[in-house]
Structures are given as structure tokens and as C-alpha cells.
Design a protein that fits this description.
Strand 6, helix 9 and strand 7 (219-221) form a beta-alpha-beta unit. The longest helix has 24 residues, at 8-31. Helix content is 45%, strand content 13%. An eight-stranded parallel β-sheet has the order 1-2-3-4-5-6-7-8. The protein has helices at 8-31, 55-64, 78-85, 87-91, 108-111, 116-128, 152-163, 174-182, 205-214, 237-245, 259-263, 265-276, 281-295; strands spanning 38-44, 67-73, 95-100, 137-142, 167-171, 193-195, 219-221, 250-251. Bound molecules: zinc ion (ZN). The site of zinc ion has 6 residues, from strand 1.
Length: 299
């Protein structure tokens, strides 16, 4: 029977049933999203972000998205220190894991790997620490030419990271992963390297798998990772398989490298919650929170 044959009261009742069905569907769609805490493992609070997005603004964005801890770094390092020292950060329930950025300005992106002044700056920052405690890592740094992994300062910083148990956040290609690892005393067996974007240049999942097998402490951060998500924002099959093969090795991140990323912070985190909800609950919680929290000994 078609709805056209129904009386007015029956039509209203029918509409109510349909509306209830849609509401139930919406609840079901929400229920599959991951709803637990998030560790943002790639956050910048750069110079140019601080005026349009003062501390209360960025902290509100973290808070309303359930981001309970951040791997923070900034160009220059003042932004990280501001986040680490403000009572507002504690009030927002956000734990700051501070990293030393290797850049004082844009020019340093290209030259840091050979610049002794950067090494001196890193040593001074490490000695100073932050109000939230000592720096826990180095980076994010970039190597636009993977050969620069063998620059004198890049070599010294990788050795320093291993000696002082500092994690490293590196935006590099797969070749540079091998080169950077080779420059540590353990040849990459003991250094905690977080691969920003897990091969943004497009290293295939099989190559990522190979590097994860070779370096037991290598972690993958997943912002801007091409091929990660497919239809409807869900994980593509080969990446879903890789995440499930190594559920203790991946983390999510915002990469707020330009102000636009702050404007879309809500959408970025919602996107993560969507595909995390498509994983078994224990794997989702590891990638969302526990892997980062465990790496830095957070509660
Ligand atoms: Zn970044």
C-alpha cells in the first residue's frame, strides 16, 4: 500500500516512524566513531598562528575534540613554551609533550642539516627545558633532499637523540629513514623515530611495512598520508591491514603547519574519529591515544 492511500493521521504516524528510523540510523553512525581520548602527535603552534589563534582559542579546539595530549613544537620555540607554561593548558586538561624545533625562521628549513648554529641552539633549548618539564624530542624537521640526512648536524642530532632518549619527528622520505637510522650508535635499533606523515612522498604500504620490520621503535604519524582513506573517509584496505598488523606503531596528528589547519582542527579530528571507529576498539584506542601516551609515559 502506498502512503497516498493513508488518512492524515496515518500519514503523520508514518512520518514519525520514518523520522525515528532516521534518528536511529544517525545514532548508529555516531556510535561507530571512536569516542575516546586523542593524542595529537604532530602539533605546531607557530609564530603566525598566535595572533589569530591565541592560547584560549587553540586550547578550546583541543578540548572540544577530546585531545588530551599534544606533541607540541613551534617555529621559533616560544609557541611550545607558551603552551607548556600556561595555567590555561592545565585547565583545559591538555598535557604538553614539548619537542625542540630546529627552525628559528623559514630559511632554517633548508639549511639546518649543515648548520652548527642549529646544533648549539638545540643544546641550549635542551638545557633550558620548559615549564612543563624537559623537552622530550627533536623536530619536526624536514629533509627535502634525503641525502642531507648525512649532513654533519643531522648526524650529530640523530646520535644525540639516541644518547639522551629523545624521540625524533621527521618529515622525510623512505630513503632518509635508512640514512638517519644509520647515523645512530645502535644503527636505528634504539632510537624512537616518528615518521611524520608515514611517507608523504608516497612510499607504498609494503615499503612502510619493510621499514617497520627493520626498525623496532619506528613509529608512523598519519596526517597527510596519501592513500590512507578511501570512500566515505574510511581506511583504504591496504592501510587498514597495515594498521592492524602494527597497531602499536601508529599515531594521529593535526599538523597545524599553517593557520588554515587550525581553522579545520574540528574537521581533522572528526575525520580521524570516523576511520578509527572502523577498527577494532583496542586497535583504535592504541592509535588514537595509548601509543603516544605510552611513548612519553603519560597516564
Ligand atoms: Zn608538520
Amino acid at each position: 500500500m502506498g502512503i497516498t492511500g493513508l488518512g492524515r493521521r496515518a500519514k503523520l504516524a508514518f512520518r514519525a516512524v520514518i523520522a525515528a528510523a532516521f534518528a536511529a540510523l544517525a545514532v548508529a553512525a555516531q556510535a561507530v566513531e571512536y569516542t575516546g581520548p586523542l593524542f595529537d602527535a604532530h602539533l605546531h603552534y607557530n609564530d603566525e598562528a598566535q595572533s589569530p589563534h591565541p592560547l584560549p582559542d587553540v586550547l578550546a579546539r583541543m578540548q572540544r575534540n577530546g585531545v588530551k595530549a599534544i606533541l607540541a613544537n613551534s617555529r621559533p620555540n616560544d609557541g611550545t613554551k607558551a603552551l607548556a607554561s600556561s595555567p590555561l593548558t592545565r585547565q583545559a586538561g591538555v598535557t604538553v609533550v614539548p619537542f625542540v624545533r630546529l627552525y628559528r625562521n623559514r630559511a632554517d628549513y633548508e639549511s639546518w642539516s649543515h648548520d652548527e648554529a642549529i646544533y648549539e641552539m638545540v643544546l641550549a633549548e635542551l638545557a633550558r627545558g620548559t615549564a612543563a618539564g624537559p623537552f622530550r624530542g627533536l623536530g619536526e624537521f624536514h629533509l627535502y633532499d634525503s641525502g642531507n640526512a648525512n649532513g654533519a648536524v643531522a648526524k650529530k642530532l640523530m646520535a644525540l637523540a639516541e644518547e639522551r632518549s629523545l624521540a625524533v619527528l621527521a618529515h622525510v622520505d623512505d630513503l632518509a629513514i635508512d640514512l638517519l637510522m644509520a647515523n645512530t650508535p645502535s644503527k636505528g635499533q634504539k632510537v624512537r623515530l616518528i615518521w611524520a606523515h608515514t611517507g608523504i612522498g608516497g612510499a607504498p604500504a609494503a615499503r612502510v611495512d619493510q621499514l617497520f620490520a627493520r626498525y623496532p621503535l619506528l613509529m608512523g604519524e598519519l596526517s597527510y598520508r596519501p592513500g590512507l582513506t578511501c570512500d566515505g573517509g574510511k581506511l583504504c584496505p591496504e592501510w587498514r591491514d597495515l594498521l592492524l598488523k602494527y597497531p602499536t606503531r601508529f599515531m594521529i596528528g593535526s599538523d597545524t603547519w599553517v593557520n588554515q589547519r587550525w581553522q579545520y582542527y574540528d574537521e581533522l579530528m572528526k575525520g580521524y574519529r570516523l576511520w578509527l571507529g572502523d577498527l577494532p576498539a583496542d586497535a583504535a584506542r592504541k592509535i588514537a591515544w595509548e601509543n603516544g601516551a605510552g611513548l612519553f609515559g603519560l597516564k
